[in-house]
Amino acid sequence: MENLKTTLELDDLVNLETMFIEIGREDGLKNGIKSGILEGQLLGCEKGYELLNEIGFYDGVTEMWLKILEKGLSIHNTKKPINERLIKKLTSLRELISTFPIENQQNVEFLDLLSKVRSKYKVCTSLLGVANSQKFNKTSNESDIGDQGISDSTNTHDGNMIF
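Above: the chain's sequence. Below: its structure in token form.
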């Protein structure tokens, strides 16, 4: 009986390392899940901010151009008539932007919508003749939040304001 008890204690000591490894693995998995959820939420917030910042840029620029055209102001200080096709394209772009989801999405369909918004925006800027000056640029400097990459020549033509 004494031998059996000693063997059980010895087996417990031999399995002690395995037991600690299993306990450590379980604790590591729990901590990994916790930190992974937090990291995922932070990354989701950052990417969501970037996406909506870009969508806001497109919406703001589109709204500005629609107001300019509705007031009958000319583009690039010329006397060209207002292009109805351009107004339809800009209105269509604003409608597309308004369908962009602002809540959390589990699917990736909004990436297709973003791609459509980008391509319609390119068409509109091309029709306006400002394709090279009004582009959305991400900034890596966090102190410039809200002041996103419109180049210095965005609202000018030959150094003069177009308004």
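Residues 141-163 have pLDDT under 50 and may be disordered.
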